[in-house]
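Before relying on records like the one below, remember that each one covers exactly one chain. Contacts with other chains, cofactors or solvent are not represented anywhere in the record.
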Amino acid sequence: MVGQVKIVGILMIVHGLTVMIMGGILAALGIMMAGAAPPGGGGPGGPPDPVIFVIIYIAWGGVIAACGLLNSVAGFRVMTFHNRILGLIALFSNILALLSCYCALTAIGMMIYGLIVLFQPDVARAFELVAGGATPEEAIGRLTRRYGDARDDYDEMNRPRRDSDDERYRRRDHWDDRADDEYDRDDDTRS
């Protein structure tokens, strides 16, 4: 799981930017409503004052944008293996983005994936190693179980399992040139 911390950081940055954009849209919508709102009803039985809705939209957009900014900053810090607690706080702050309904799917996915990765004991140990003076690559190398280095599980998939056809044929051509091969010996030497 230590190798996935940088992926979580990148996803937190991207998710934070999209949430900031959505918060900005909500705040801009509130500002546009201020200019287009008809004057409020004068009586107690009339509609509510439109200024209330303007204030609600601007405040809600600001809160959503602040949540996105927190996710982006924390994502950068998590990518460099600093401030794991800030990353956890930012992931839990996605509950506010979840309540906006616009970013609900990405907020749920980011919370689940990010919290699973950041709550792992080996990830916490990697953050401690970096806080103690190690580089992120050294922490990944020490705590990655499968390879013992900074590669992840998908690096082996890009490496060809067999040699190319040219390489196999080249080896086959040189195979018959060996003098010590029992199949190349003359019939006279077998008897």
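The chain has a mean pLDDT of 79.
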